[in-house]
Amino acid sequence: MDPKRIAICGKIKVAAFDKTGTLTKDGLDFAGVLVAEGEGGGGGGAGWAAPLMPFTPAACAPELLAALASCHSVSLLADDLVGLQLEVEILRATGWGLTEPHGAPPLVRGAAADGSQRVEILRRCEFDHVSMTMSVVARLADGGLRCFCKGAPEALAKRCDPASLPADYAAVAAAHALQGYYVIGLAAKDMGELSDVEMREAPRTALEAELRFAGE
């Protein structure tokens, strides 16, 4: 080989390494949830409830549990859950099951005998790399419509009512990221009374606006 005849195409200035699945192991484990509590907006009024780490469904508030079980893009292939590993593990941790009835919206259901743990996923907005969020519009067992949205902590903060964010929100998210956790923010809002057409045609930007921060 003659070095003079090797074409020079450029040079490397930055090398980036992804540790997940290479330096550690394949897959992710769901560690738990930090739940927002109270009203804040930088004034110090909002804080955090006792962390649900390790996570147990029985200790989780009903609406937060419904959000964790429904805010995803997981689907079924035969009897197997298919989708992002993170979302599959969160759904499994809730203990809820996913069904996809023919001609009807996907449904997630818990084990409560009174039927209170039931959520229909009426609309999904898939993860967007620009907004760094994904969301669903869901109908709870009581008939109420909710928008559940999750995404990168810094992106979700821009879509939440500042009064719902703990004063140390960014610092807590950064601290957990430095410990090696994959941190995802979760928020929600009541959609009021919407017709099926209004729900389907509402711009995604409107769905993912003026949210109430729920946890991370």
Q: Tell me the span between the first and last alpha carbons.
A: 56 Å
Low-confidence stretches: 39-45
Mass-distribution shape:
globular
Q: What structural category arises from helix and sheet content?
A: alpha+beta
What is the helical fraction, as a range of percent?
10-25%
How large, in whole angstroms, is the Cα Rg? 20 Å
Number of helices: 6
Largest sheet: 7 strands, antiparallel
- Tally the beta strands: 11
**What order do the SSEs take from the amino end to the carboxyl end, as H and E?**
EEHEEHEEEEEHHEHHE
Spatial arrangement of strands, main beta sheet: 5-6-7-8-9-10-11
Could you explain the architecture of this structure?
This protein is an alpha+beta fold. Helix content is 20%, strand content 24%. It has helices at 62-70, 85-94, 153-157, 169-178, 196-201, 204-207, and strands spanning 36-37, 47-48, 75-77, 80-82, 97-99, 107-109, 118-128, 133-139, 145-151, 185-190, 212-215. The chain has a seven-stranded antiparallel sheet with strand order 5-6-7-8-9-10-11. Strands 1-2 form a two-stranded antiparallel ribbon. Strand 5 and strand 6 form a beta hairpin. Helix 1 (62-70) packs antiparallel against helix 2 (85-94). It starts with 35 loop residues before the first strand and ends with a strand. The model is unreliable at 39-45 (pLDDT under 50).
